[in-house]
């Protein structure tokens, strides 16, 4: 489309003010560069196309594309090009144009720019067809029409309906996959690093889809919130999409765990959707959260309710697949572990490993599926307990740390909720324990983390070790005590390495 950029072709459709305003908004709100379905060829003016490419490149490499930063970075890279396309004065003009509008207008402006670009392509196509029809031979007609159809298809799909998930790198999923990393041995298996048991073993895989299913009051929400508090305490962000409860219940539980109000306000992004996601404002809002805060965990609470809200049938496998692509997969593609909370089927004897609805809910997962079975009821002032079993582990990194159980499942953990009243509770995800076989689960992951912290920082008191190591306080202290008992760490305070702790020989 570069050939279509002619400043003196006044008949060509364009809106140069929309282009200036949009570029200015991207200077002020860099997140727009991740969300807008635009490429440089959509811009009419060559200098606007050039500025778009520079902003995208800078943002991709982590440089905040604010006015002064952008100017300095571009000047250092290619001062001649920078001056050719307007320099500091035009950069200032773009910035001022952005101040005249708000980031919420960016989607509308992008649509205007894309549609003008599509119209220019149609006009150019018409001109070429006219010229070929006048000058070409009769036998050339079939090829001419085929070429025209190819251009129209590209314009229709590429200009008017650009992929919002990857505006700068359109999906090419029908091309061969690059196998280099697998063949040369550099590929690494995904590890469950989101959420954790008390021994430091993870619960969920980043960028993968998971389910947690149970009967009512089986503890699935508690299980998800345990991972949520782990991620928030580690400084990460969490998205919670709630289709069946409310913010008072979810936030109240996190407060009961002792999670500080400021951390919840800053790092928990609670959504209570009541409208279908669609492709407009609601999708923009969700993408803004994912791109701005890069959460490590996203919880979808109430899958049946979410599907019904989107006019999809939970019992229909085709609808289950449609919903999976629309929401869980779309979120997982942005990096977080996606955890869907669902109900088991009513028939206890025939439920097997499946949630209520189509079997595709389990078959399509690329992460793990857990089933929670309540052993001791939860309640105020009592200690409740549910068994956490693995129904599916696609990457295969969880079962090695579990015990075999009935029905082809594996016992991975116990969810233990000790209530001390209405406003305080202790929640732990404990490793399985088999007294008959003498199986002992030592917190080897946390032991390695404690040893690494002491190696890096030198002698530390217990409170500093707890601060330095990711994990629940009580579990980190247990890991420290195991290291002391095994002779790897000194008993005196501050603690220091006595003998190097051997790194684990297996994936964590």
UniProtKB/TrEMBL annotation:
Domain spans labelled DNA helicase DnaB-like N-terminal: 12-97
Protein's UniProt keywords contain DNA-binding: yes
Record keywords, A-Z: DNA replication, DNA-binding
Residues in the signal sequence: none
Claim: DNA-binding is one of the keywords in the record: yes
Protein name per the record: DnaB-like helicase N-terminal domain-containing protein
Organism this protein belongs to: Kribbella deserti
Taxonomic lineage: Bacteria, Bacillati, Actinomycetota, Actinomycetes, Propionibacteriales
